[in-house]
Inverse folding.
C-alpha cells in the first residue's frame, strides 16, 4: 500500500499544449480518489503521467515515498484499468488474468491458483476458457479488474472504467467497484468526467480545469460548498442557480428581492459590491402561498426526475430552478414563491468566480484566512 | 399485386399466372447469362486440368484421350522438377525476408510519430514498383553484377524482396494501426519488455496480416519471370516460371502437351498454399485491403 505525492507536476505536449500546470497533490494511502473534469482538462494525462505512460515535463511523482518520476511504467508498481479494458483478444480469460504474473515469472501452478482465487471472488470462474470477444461489457470489466488485482499493485489507476457500460449496469458496477476498493484497501485514483460517479465513490476528489485543480475536497464539500463558479457549474445533476446579486443596505439584492447576507461571508463583502449568488435547486423550497422576502415568479417548465420534479420558474428576466417533491408539484402558469435555504447559499465574486470567504486554493492560503476586501467601488 | 386478384386483369395488368411465368423466364435468362460468364472464366481452368491428361491436346477443352504419358515426358526434361524446387526456394526465401523486414518496420512506423512518415511510405511504395519493373533492369543487373551475385538465388531474392518490402510495410502498417495502443500500454504497466510485447501481443494479433503478406509475396515471386530470367544464367538454377519456356519448340511453337502438363504442376503449389492459409486464417482482408 502506498500514498501518492505529486509535486509541481507539469506536462507540456509537443506543440505547446499545457496539459498539466504545476500540479501539487497528495493522495493518502488506501484512499479512493477521483479526478473529475470535462474532457481536455488534463485528468487522463495526469493519470497516464502517474502510470509512466507519459513523461513529465517537470515536477516529481512519489509513490509510497519513492521517487518514480524517471522510472518506466513496469517499475512503478501501479495497475491500470483502461477505458476499453485492453483485454488481449487472442488469449483466454484465464491467460489474460495470469499474463502479468507470467511477466513476473511466477510459476504456472501459482498463477493458476491466483487466477482461481481472484476469479472466484469476482465470480468469473465460469468464463475462464472464453475469449474476451465472447464476453459482455460487464464481464469484460470484471476480467480487467481481476487481471489488475492479480498483479497486486500498490496503486490502482482507473481510466473511466464504467463509461463503456450501459446506464443500468454502470450503477451496479459502481457499487461493486466501491465495495471492492473498500475490501482491498488499495490506494485508487479514478478518472471520470461523470460527476455523479465521483460523488458516489470517492473519499476525496479533485475537480480539474485546464490542467489545474479547481477544488480538492470531499465529494460533500465539493457539492455543498463549491469553491468557484466552475466547480459549481460542473457538479450536481441539476445545474446550480447562478443569479446576479448586489449588496444593498447590508442585504443581498437579487432580482428585486432582499435576502439576508450569510453570516460567514458578511466580513468579506463591501457595500454595493456585485456578486453572483449560487444555490442548488435541491436547496430551494417552493411555495404557492406568499412568503415575505422570497423570489417570486411564474412556473414555466416541469421536468420529472423520478422522486422529485425540477421546476423552472421565470423570476423577472431570470430563470430559477427548484426541485419539488411529488406531492407539491405546481402546474405551469402557477405563481410561486422560492426561498433559498440560507445554509446553502453560496456567493461568488464576479471577477474571478471564486467563492466569497473561501480559502483560495490556487494561492495556497490556509483555511480561515480572511480575504482582504479591496474591491474598488463601482 | 398478388392480393388484388382477378380485378387486376380487368384493368389490363398481367394476371398472377402470367407473372409467375415471367418471373420464371427472367430467372432462366439470368442463370443462362451467369453460366456464360462463368464458362468464359472457367474454360481455361478446365483446359488446364484436362489437357495434361490428353495424348493430343488442342486449344479446345475436350474430353481427353486419357494418358499419363505427358507427365513422364515433362519429367524427362532435366530441369522440370528442379525448377519447381527453385521456385519454392525463391518464394519462401523472399517471403521470409519480406516478413522479417516489413513487420518490425510497420510496427515502428505505426507507433512512432515521424514527421513526413506518410510521404515516406508513399514514396517507397511508388519507387518499389520501379525496382521490380522493366525500367530499372539495367542498373539492377549492374548492381547485382558488382555485388558478385549474378547467377545466385540470393541476388534474385534480394531484388524481389526489395520490390515487395515497401508494399508489405504499407499493408502491415494498416494491420498494426488497428491494434489499440492500450494493449501494449497495459502490458508495459505489467512490466513487459518491448520484445515480450511484440511476441505476446502484437504478433499474435497481426498474424492474419502476416499471413496475407506471406501469401501475397509468394504468389508474386512464383509468377515472376523477368528477374530470375535476367539474373540467373545456369539452366539448372532457373525457377519454373522461366523453365516453362523450355517447352516451346525451337521454331517458337508451343508444345501443348508439355506446356499444359507443366502448367498444371506449376499451379498446384499455389493452389495448395491458398487452401492451407485460407483454412488456417480464413483470409480476413481488413484495414486498407478490403476486398
Amino acid at each position: 500500500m502506498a500514498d501518492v505525492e505529486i509535486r509541481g507536476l507539469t506536462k507540456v505536449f509537443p506543440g505547446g499544449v499545457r496539459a498539466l500546470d504545476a500540479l501539487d497533490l497528495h493522495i493518502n494511502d488506501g484512499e479512493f480518489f477521483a479526478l473529475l473534469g470535462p474532457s481536455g482538462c488534463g485528468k487522463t494525462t495526469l493519470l497516464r503521467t502517474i502510470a509512466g505512460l507519459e513523461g513529465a515535463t517537470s515536477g516529481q511523482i512519489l509513490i509510497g515515498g519513492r521517487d518514480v518520476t524517471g522510472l518506466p511504467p513496469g517499475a512503478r508498481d501501479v495497475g491500470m484499468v483502461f477505458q476499453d479494458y485492453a483485454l488481449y483478444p487472442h488469449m483466454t480469460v484465464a491467460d489474460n488474468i495470469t499474463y502479468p504474473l507470467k511477466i513476473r515469472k511466477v510459476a504456472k501452478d501459482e498463477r493458476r491458483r491466483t487466477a482461481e482465487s481472484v476469479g472466484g471472488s469476482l465470480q468469473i470462474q465460469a468464463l475462464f476458457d472464453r475469449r474476451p470477444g465472447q464476453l459482455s461489457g460487464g464481464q469484460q470489466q470484471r476480467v480487467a479488474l481481476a487481471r489488475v488485482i492479480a498483479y497486486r499493485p500498490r496503486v490502482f489507476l482507473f481510466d473511466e472504467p464504467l463509461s463503456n457500460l450501459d446506464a443500468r449496469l454502470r450503477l451496479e458496477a459502481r457499487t461493486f467497484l466501491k465495495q471492492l476498493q473498500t475490501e482491498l484497501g488499495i490506494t485508487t485514483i479514478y478518472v471520470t468526467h461523470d460527476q455523479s460517479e465521483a460523488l458516489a465513490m470517492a473519499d476525496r476528489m479533485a475537480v480539474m480545469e485546464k490542467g489545474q485543480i479547481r477544488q480538492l475536497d470531499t465529494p460533500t464539500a465539493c457539492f455543498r460548498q463549491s469553491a468557484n463558479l466552475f466547480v459549481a457549474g460542473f457538479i450536481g445533476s441539476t445545474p446550480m442557480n447562478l443569479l446576479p446579486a448586489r449588496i444593498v443596505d447590508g442585504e443581498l439584492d437579487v432580482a428585486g428581492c432582499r435576502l439576508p447576507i450569510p453570516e460567514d461571508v458578511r466580513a468579506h463583502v463591501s457595500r454595493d459590491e456585485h456578486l453572483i449568488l449560487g444555490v442548488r435547486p435541491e436547496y430551494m423550497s417552493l411555495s404557492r402561498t406568499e412568503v415575505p422576502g422570497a423570489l417570486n415568479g411564474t412556473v414555466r417548465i416541469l421536468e420529472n426526475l423520478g422522486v422529485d420534479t425540477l421546476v423552472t420558474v421565470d423570476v423577472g428576466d431570470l430563470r430559477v430552478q427548484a426541485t419539488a417533491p411529488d406531492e407539491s408539484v405546481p402546474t405551469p402558469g402557477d405563481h410561486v414563491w422560492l426561498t433559498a435555504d440560507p445554509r446553502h447559499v453560496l456567493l461568488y465574486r464576479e471577477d474571478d468566480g471564486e467563492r466569497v470567504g473561501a480559502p483560495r486554493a490556487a494561492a495556497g492560503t490556509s483555511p480561515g484566512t480572511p480575504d482582504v476586501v479591496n474591491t474598488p467601488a463601482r | 399485386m398478388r392480393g388484388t386478384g382477378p380485378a387486376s386483369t380487368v384493368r389490363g395488368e398481367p394476371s398472377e399466372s402470367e407473372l409467375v411465368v415471367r418471373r420464371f423466364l427472367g430467372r432462366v435468362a439470368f442463370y443462362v447469362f451467369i453460366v456464360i460468364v462463368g464458362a468464359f472464366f472457367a474454360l481455361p481452368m478446365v483446359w488446364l486440368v484436362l489437357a495434361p491428361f490428353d495424348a493430343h491436346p488442342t486449344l479446345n477443352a475436350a474430353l481427353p484421350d486419357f494418358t499419363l504419358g505427358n507427365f513422364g515426358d515433362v519429367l524427362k526434361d532435366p530441369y522440370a522438377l528442379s525448377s519447381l524446387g527453385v521456385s519454392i526456394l525463391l518464394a519462401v526465401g523472399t517471403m521470409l525476408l519480406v516478413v522479417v523486414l516489413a513487420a518490425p518496420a510497420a510496427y515502428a512506423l505505426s507507433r512512432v510519430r515521424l514527421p513526413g512518415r506518410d510521404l515516406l511510405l508513399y514514396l517507397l511504395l511508388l519507387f518499389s514498383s520501379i525496382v521490380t519493373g522493366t525500367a530499372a533492369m539495367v542498373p539492377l543487373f549492374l548492381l547485382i553484377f558488382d555485388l558478385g551475385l549474378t547467377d545466385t538465388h540470393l541476388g534474385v531474392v534480394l531484388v524481389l524482396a526489395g520490390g515487395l518490402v515497401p508494399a508489405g510495410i504499407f499493408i502491415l502498417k494498416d494491420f498494426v494501426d488497428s491494434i489499440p495502443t492500450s494493449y501494449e500500454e497495459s502490458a508495459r504497466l505489467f512490466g513487459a519488455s518491448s520484445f515480450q510485447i511484440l511476441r505476446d501481443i502484437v504478433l499474435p494479433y497481426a498474424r492474419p496480416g502476416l499471413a496475407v503478406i506471406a501469401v501475397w509475396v509468394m504468389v508474386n515471386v512464383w509468377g515472376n519471370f523477368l528477374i530470375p530470367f535476367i539474373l540467373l544464367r545456369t539452366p539448372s538454377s532457373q525457377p519454373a516460371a522461366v523453365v516453362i519456356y523450355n517447352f516451346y519448340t525451337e521454331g517458337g511453337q508451343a508444345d501443348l502437351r508439355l506446356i499444359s502438363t507443366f502448367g498444371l504442376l506449376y499451379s498446384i503449389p499455389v493452389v495448395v498454399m491458398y487452401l492451407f492459409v485460407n483454412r488456417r486464417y480464413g483470409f480476413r482482408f481488413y484495414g486498407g485491403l478490403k476486398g
In short: DSSP finds eight helices and 20 strands in chain A. Confidence is low (pLDDT under 50) at residues 361-378 of chain A. The longest helix of chain A spans residues 167-184.
